[in-house]
Amino acid sequence: MTPDLDSLVAALDGIADPLGGGGLLTSGRATPPRISGETVTVVLDATGLDEAQRKTLDQTVTSALEAAGATKVRLAMTAERSGPIIVAVASGKGGVGKSTLAANLAVALARSGAQVGLVDADIHGPSVPLLMGTGSARPTAVGEKLQPLTAHGVKVLSLGMIVEPGKAIAWRGPMAGRALEQLIEANWAPANLLIVDMPPGTGDVQLSLLQRHKPAGAVIVSTPQDLALIDARRAIDLFRSMHVPILGLVENMAGYACPHCGEVSDPFGSGGAEAAAIALDVPFLGRVPLDPQIRAASDEGTPPATGDGAGAEAYRAIAERLRVALNL
Ligand SMILES: Nc1ncnc2c1ncn2[C@@H]1O[C@H](COP(=O)(O)OP(=O)(O)OP(=O)(O)O)[C@@H](O)[C@H]1O
Ligand SMILES: [Mg+2]
Question: 225: pLDDT confidence band, cut at 50, 70 and 90?
Fold first, then answer.
């Protein structure tokens, strides 16, 4: 007897993805069942699963499909997706300095000899072309694969490079997710590390990245204000719920060095992020001062991490701790 597709679909999606994100179909872990005579075929993506989880998943899916009427089940488990490891730079709230940190971390890592790519995943407000000074340059494609641009020793792609300016606003979650996929699956070689500048908040694009391209870890950016830290907690919770390790918290705009008198003040308070990191049990990766020169250099497309000075030193120190956290 031919099994009923709806029952098979319901059975498959009734199994929770071992790494979160809903049922196996919802999370993208499994392809929809294909029925051929009495045989039901499903392809499972093994990305992010260890040996034991793969085995359990194989057994759970087989029994569920059999219980839903399949006489013969054929499961194919695809290999772990290879490619660069992904580090997401995220925050719960906008405007805290994610893009600036992502760009400068990438530059600092490249300066220390790493092969790094930078992906701008912010579809509504792409800022990497400005920060890295690539202007209106567009990537070419070879076959299906986009060829990243290179700036300041870093390979770079931004949604802002492939979408007409002003058009992205109408994009819905799934389209944004597909566009992001093209960026992540671009020809990054020889980069083996991708820093992804995430859009603010915890919406569709964030989820699709977490489900399809499991990052090796996340760096959370916060300003010292309490309110921003509450948001940082929300971002940390999202990554934790998807089993993405938090590599650490960075406090941005910490302390203000007056360009005229040199006096350092703390307009947003200080030490809040470090205390929060301890309370949340995540590593503290360091702080970046609120420095008008960081803003000016960023707006000119010359990341401060390319030079010397206090800002460059702060980014270098954070990049170093990140390398240690990633075992690079
Ligand atoms: N440490 C700093 N000192 C001075 N200015 C900074 C610092 N970090 C970021 N900025 C400035 O703050 C503004 C916001 O930074 P950025 O765009 O990186 O934030 P974001 O979190 O990516 O924002 P969004 O949520 O909109 O993507 C920019 O003008 C940037 O130049
Ligand atoms: Mg940004």
Answer: confident
CB of 125 closer than 6 angstroms to any ligand 1 atom: yes
Is residue 223 within 6 Å of ligand 1 at its C-beta? Answer: no
Alpha helices by DSSP H, listed for 112-158, are 128-132
Helices 292-299 and 98-111, packing angle to 10 deg: 80
Ligand 1: nearest atom to the Cα of 94: 25
Tell which residue, 304, 310, 311, has the closest CA to residue 152.
304
- CA of 6 relative to ligand 2 center, distance in Å: 42
Please state which of the ranges 29-33, 177-181, 320-324 shows the lowest mean pLDDT: 177-181
94 Cα: distance to centroid of ligand 1 (angstroms): 9
Share of residues in the chain with pLDDT > 70 (%): 92
CA–CA dist 182, 187 (Å, integer): 10
What is the distance between the alpha carbons of residues 175 and 163, in angstroms, rounded to a whole number?
12
Provide Rg for the chain, Cα atoms: 22
> Could you tell me the strand order of the sheet in which 34-36 lies?
34-36, 39-45, 72-78
Q: How far is the CA of 239 from the centre of ligand 1 (A)?
A: 22
Distance CA 58, CA 44 (A): 9
pLDDT at 131: 97
List, in order of start, the domains of the chain with CATH numbers: 5-78 (3.30.300.130), 85-326 (3.40.50.300)
**Ligand 1 atom closest to Cα of residue 293:** 4
Cα distance between residue 127 and residue 229, in whole Å: 23
Question: Any idea which of 19-33, 104-118, 143-157 has the lowest mean pLDDT?
Answer: 19-33
User: Among 89, 99, 302, which residue has the most ligand 1 atoms within 8 Å of its CB, making it the best to mutate?
Assistant: 99
pLDDT in tens, 32-87: 999 988 889 998 988 878 889 999 999 999 999 999 999 999 998 887 667 899 99
